[in-house]
Design brief:
11 strands; mainly beta; 6-stranded antiparallel barrel; 1 helix; lipopolysaccharide transport protein A fold
Length: 201
């Protein structure tokens, strides 16, 4: 005799559906918890503070003496500001004079400047001009560039920027220059091009 078909109760038919719905709900809750943005942590941001100078000097004239008591170099300007945290001076329109043993002194001027370590190292920026007037022991000369590093105690000036050196009858262009002003010698370092220039140029 054929077996009689067994009848499944409605509860047994609903069970897989209930389990499936529960899995979907649980999965949704877990996913929602992971994607929910977390509350911001209490972090105090350090705001950038504008550096403050400890003092400044206006219309100044500083003179440094050599071992014999004679002026080695002089620095003038309308304003100089000191920042103690960096041991930094910022200088408006610096005008520096380098004295040498023979001939006229070298004068260095620029739009602005910075100096460190009690003015033993400095940089001139902007339109930089190092010039020397003609005298009994020297021809006139000038070096023009946009940035120059100075070492006043050694009377040394150097730059890695394009530079132009002019003197009587000659103009020399190049990239990089080094000037040992104590011995009145300036060398262009690379890509050097020279040309004759009449005295009127």
């Amino acid at each position: 005799m054929p077996e009689k078909p067994t009848l499944r109760s409605p509860q047994r038919r609903l069970f897989p559906w209930v389990v499936g719905v529960l899995l979907v709900v649980v999965g949704w809750l877990v996913l929602d918890e992971q994607m929910r943005p977390t509350a911001p942590t209490d972090v105090t941001r350090e705001e950038e503070t504008e550096r403050q100078p400890d003092y400044f000097i206006e219309d100044f004239h500083s003179i440094s003496l050599d071992e014999t008591g004679e002026p080695a170099w002089e620095l003038r300007g309308p304003r100089m500001v000191h920042f103690i945290d960096e041991d930094l001076w910022t200088i408006d329109s610096p005008d520096m004079l380098y004295h040498v043993e023979r001939g006229e002194p070298w004068r260095l001027r620029s739009d602005s400047g910075r100096a460190w370590s009690a003015l033993t190292e400095a940089v001139l920026e902007g339109d930089v001009l190092a010039s020397r007037e003609a005298g009994e022991d020297n021809d006139w000369a000038e070096l023009e560039t946009t940035e120059a590093w100075l070492y006043p105690q050694e009377r040394l000036v150097q730059t890695q920027k394009p530079a132009t050196y002019r003197t009587r009858g000659a103009v020399v262009d190049g990239v990089g220059a080094r000037g040992a002003l104590a011995v009145n010698r300036i060398n262009l370092l690379s890509e050097v091009r020279s040309r004759y220039a009449p005295e009127s140029e």
